[in-house]
Structures are given as C-alpha cells and as structure tokens.
Amino acid sequence: MSMRGRHLDAYSMYKRGTREHGFDAFDKEQGPERSLNGVGKDIGVPSWKRSLRHVLVATLSSFLYGYHLGVVNETLESISRDLGFHGNTMAEGLVVSTCLGGAFVGSLFSGLIADGVGRRRALQLCALPMIIGASMSATAKSLWAMLLGRLFVGTGMGIGPAVAALYVTEVSPAYVRGTYGSFTQIATGLGLMGSLFIGFPAKAIEGWWRICFWASVAPAAILALFMEFSVESPHWLFKRGRAADAEAEFEKLLGGPYVKSAMAELSKSDRGDEADTFKFSELLYGHHRKVVFIGSTLFALQQLSGINAVFYFSSTVFETAGVPSESANMCVGIANLLGSFVAMILMDRLGRKVLLIGSFSGMLCLGFVFGS
User: Which residues form the Major facilitator superfamily (MFS) profile domain (predicted)?
Assistant: First the structure.
C-alpha cells in the first residue's frame, strides 16, 4: 500500500525526535518486572484500553485518506458526464491526480505544523481542508471547481496520516505500539472499501457521486470535534517545556503508577537528543544517509508496484476485461484489509524488518507469476 511509506516517514520523523535508545529501552524494560522507582516492585503493564479511544479518533484521518483515494473510482464516469468532460482523458486524470498534488504540498508542512501547534491541533487542521474540499467537490458545477475541491482535500490528505502515525506512536503503550500503529493502515483500508461500496449506485442514480463526496464530511467533522477531547502527545508537551502537562497526559494514557517511569524515559531520550544533534544535510550526506536511502527506496518501490492505479482506475480496468467492477473492487478492498490485519497481528511478534522482507518477496513472486 502506498500509505505505508507515508506512515514510515512519520515514524522516522518521530524516531529522529526521540532517538532510538530512549524508547527502545522503554520497549525492552516495560514488562512484569518493570518497577516504578527501581525498587523491584511488580506493577505489570499499563492498560491498553486507556489510550485506545485516542488512537481510534486519530486514525479517522487515515480513514479519510483511504476514502478520498477511492471515491473517484466508481464515480469518475458519472462526474465526467455531469461536468461535461466525458472522454477527455486529460481532464479525468486531473480529477484523479490533483488531490495527490495537494497531498504533496500538505506533506511538506506536516512536520512543521505538528511540531508548531501540537499533534491534536494538527489533526484538527487537516480535517478543515477535507471538509471544505469535499463540500466544494460535492457542489461543483464545472471541472475547475472539482479540481479546486480535490486540491483542498489533498492538502488535508498530506497532513493527516503522517501526523496520525506520529500521534499514535507517541500515545501508545510500548507493548502494543506496533499493533496500534497498524490501526492507521486498517483505517485506510476501511476508508477505501467504504468509498468503493458507497460508489456502486453512481452509474445507476444520477447525481449520486455528489452524495459520495458529502459522505466524507461527517468523519472529517467528527475528527475535528473529538480531537478536542483527546489527549495531547506527552512527548510534544515535554519538548515544549510543559513537563507538568506531560505528566497529566501520561496519567490519562497509562495510569498513575506508570507516570514516573514514563517521564524518566522521556527525560532520558531528551538528553540523548541534546547530545546527538545533527543538521538536515546529514540526512543526505552524513551517517543517516543509509537509512534515508533504504526508506525512500522502499516507498518508491511501493509506488512502482502500480497499486495506486488499481485504487483509482480498477473499475475501468475490470470492465474492459469483462469482469463486473463491483465484485472485483470489493475483492481488492478485502484483500488489502486482510493484509492490514495480518500486519497488525504480527507486527509486535515478528518485527518490522521481517514483515517488510516478507511482503516485498510476496510482491516479487506475484509479479513474476502474472508477468509470465
């Protein structure tokens, strides 16, 4: 999936902010023998239920990302007829790709926004252009109005998933961090399936495509509203010099007995940041270049797999091949969702590296099979 590369970038940004030794140590030490003040008292692990609702709210941005990826799949033909550009492949391609241009712009500023106003406000800000853009697309009377709406939506798409992945990582207990991280991918898959499902009547009911765009306004509004009642990232608060607020948020996320140990690990990682500063140029030329190169290459390979073409144009491709688009698209969505569930189950058991090697090996084998 193309979204994993974006989530990987967000996770890398988070690791640059906290450094691996700090939270890797927290991952290893968290367990039945983890003590509160180093005296060996057995306090177990914090409940995963405390942070779950905050994680679920944040993943609405990933749901919207997936929804807007697939919303033009079933509806593109109806949109082109109603807005007067049917048969113009250039215009149809612009309707599909304009949101990606907006996403590129949004992604350039996602890190600055998340660090400047906090994770909660950043997620609320990403919901705003999605609401405006979806409303503009739903009421569009011309191609240019549709393109402008898609551009607004794309801006939110560029900001949201990256910040969501960062937020989920920072508010999750260490022992379920990988599992919770997979929620963003599952939400993307659900959004994609939702857009395909709601788009089925578009070819039979005139103007249904407008309903498809209006439908995305509701989850965007819920995201903006519910983030107001969600916790802020303790890591962001601590780095802004608001240690007392960070403790309060840790208490909501982990429970009182775990606050001191969490703050100790946070202080440890912050000292590591000060001792190991680096310039942005080192990402390209310094000792970080290998990691950057590998991460960028993995993301590029995901795009070259052609998965985005499937999400955007599968209806046309399947119909050309004589396959009913409704059933074929649902199979694509289900397969994508099942893969996300597999990743969620195995993420904390096998590790990230093993899953990456296994998934890319599977893609390679399938490529040889279908290519031959």
Answer: 54-372
Residue for token digits 């989530």? Answer: 7
- How far, in Å, CA of 111 to CA of 118, rounded? 10
Give the end of a domain, one of 231, 264, 292: 231
Final residue before a domain boundary, out of 182, 206, 231: 231
Each of the 372 residues of the chain gets a pLDDT tens digit; together they read 444 444 444 444 434 444 333 334 334 434 443 443 333 345 678 888 999 999 999 999 999 999 998 898 889 889 999 999 988 989 988 998 899 899 989 988 998 999 999 999 999 999 999 999 999 999 999 999 999 999 999 999 999 999 999 999 999 998 888 788 888 888 988 998 899 889 888 888 999 999 999 999 999 999 999 999 999 999 999 999 999 999 999 999 998 899 998 898 888 776 555 545 556 666 666 666 777 777 777 666 666 666 666 666 666 666 666 666 666 666 766 777 777 777 777 666 676 677 777 776 776 776 666 555
Same domain as 316, residue 174: no
Measured over the CA atoms of residue 252, residue 256, residue 257 and residue 263, the dihedral's sign is: positive
**One domain, residues 99 and 227:** yes
Judgement on whether residues 73 and 199 belong to the same structural domain of the protein: yes
**If you search the block for the tokens 């906090």, which residue do you land on?**
118
d(CA 223, CA 200) in angstroms, rounded, equals: 26
User: How many Cβ atoms are within 10 Å of 327's Cβ, its own excluded?
Assistant: 10
Compute the distance between CA of residue 232 and CA of residue 250 in angstroms, rounded to an integer.
Answer: 10
Whether 216 maps to a domain, the answer reads yes
Query: Is the domain of 219 the same as that of 310?
Result: no
Distance CA(166)–CA(160), nearest Å, equals 10
Contact 270, 238 (CB under 8 A): yes
Specify whether 109 is located in the same domain as 198: yes
